[in-house]
Design brief:
The protein is an alpha/beta fold and about 300 residues long. It has helices spanning about 10-20, 25-30, 35-50, 65-90, 105-110, 110-120, 135-145, 190-195, 205-215, 230-240, 250-255, 285-300, and strands at about 55, 60-65, 100-105, 125-130, 150, 160-175, 185-190, 200, 225, 245, 260-265, 265, 270-280. It starts with 8 loop residues before the first helix and ends with a helix.
Length: about 300
């Protein structure tokens, strides 16, 4: 039984939009609603939850500390709802026309949508189910034959998997405009490793890649906050919780609009490779091979 304190999915999506845009007006536009309607939904959601979720100021709107937590949880709920919708859709499709994909959050949010649009144009009868999870979970799902193709963002892939590079990415250190690092010209890699950061969970590809890049400077400091989605990390960082390291793909819009600032790092290479993975002992299905080819062609074009 769903608790009466749980907001509906549309309201949760609206909260995430406010977190990303920092504006009730822009969130309203994105959802095709009026700003008064958004404000009314927000009041209803705050009444259900029992705590303020959004702070309003002349400079815009930002999530409260409680709002950041709710947004992080909401992302998981919405991802589960998307998986349910994809699964229900796939039940109506012929098994030979079904492609099961698992992807790390960065790839799922910022790269796969345009690849899947191309796949849909080429194979309109193929039903695709997509699961967004961290890189370790993606590899486990591929090896367990729960999905046909996976996309990961860690520095290496585990045994039993073949892989192909499908994109190049860059991790960036970001802070809120009010953070002391915002006034610095650069931060040394050793200091970054010793700083308590707002982090993803230990098995995320982003955190694994960061640990590998800073390995010569010692283990990473204990996280200041540990959150399960990039959206939650971005929101907490923008709210002033502390520095974070995220994919440039994930924070591009925040950087463009000044919600976050990038801090240059000296002494570490934060570039990384994003890979497709599949079992070494199994041939990829035709839809999986076509998606893999689409991703590879897109990578060549981007470079």
């Amino acid at each position: 039984m769903v608790s009466p304190r749980v907001p509906d999915l549309d309201s949760l999506q609206l909260l995430l939009e406010i977190a990303v845009t920092g504006s009730l007006g822009r969130a309203a536009t994105a959802h095709g609603l009026s700003q008064p309607a958004v404000s009314a939904r927000l009041r209803t959601m705050e009444a259900l939850v029992g705590v303020p979720l959004v702070e309003r100021s002349p400079r815009g709107s930002s999530l409260t500390a409680a709002g950041v937590l709710v947004a992080g949880w909401a992302r998981e709920v919405l991802t589960a709802a998307e998986m349910l919708d994809a699964g229900i859709t796939s039940l109506r499709a012929d098994q030979d026309q079904h492609l099961r994909v698992a992807a790390s959050m960065t790839v799922a949010e910022h790269l796969l949508p345009r690849w899947l649009v191309r796949l849909a144009a080429d194979r309109p009868r193929t039903a695709v189910s997509l699961q967004a999870m961290n890189s370790t979970q993606v590899e486990q799902a591929v090896l367990a034959d729960q999905v046909d193709l996976g996309f990961v963002e860690g520095p290496d892939v585990g045994p039993g998997l073949d892989d192909r590079v499908v994109a190049h990415d860059r991790l960036v250190v970001v802070v809120a405009p009010t953070h002391p690092w915002a006034r610095r010209r650069r931060v040394d890699a050793a200091e970054l490793a010793a700083t308590r950061l707002v982090q993803r969970e230990p098995t995320s590809g982003t955190r694994t890649a960061l640990a590998a890049a800073l390995a010569e400077h010692g283990p990473l400091a204990t996280p200041l906050l540990e959150l399960s989605t990039s959206t939650a990390v971005r929101s907490a960082t923008a709210a002033g919780a502390g520095p974070a390291v995220l994919s440039h793909l994930a924070v591009q819009d925040d950087l463009d609009h000044g919600r976050l600032l990038e801090v240059p790092i000296r002494g570490a290479d934060l570039t990384r490779l994003l890979r497709a993975v599949w079992p070494s002992d199994r041939r990829t299905s035709r839809p999986a091979q076509e998606l893999l080819d689409i991703a590879t062609i897109a990578e060549r074009g981007d470079r």
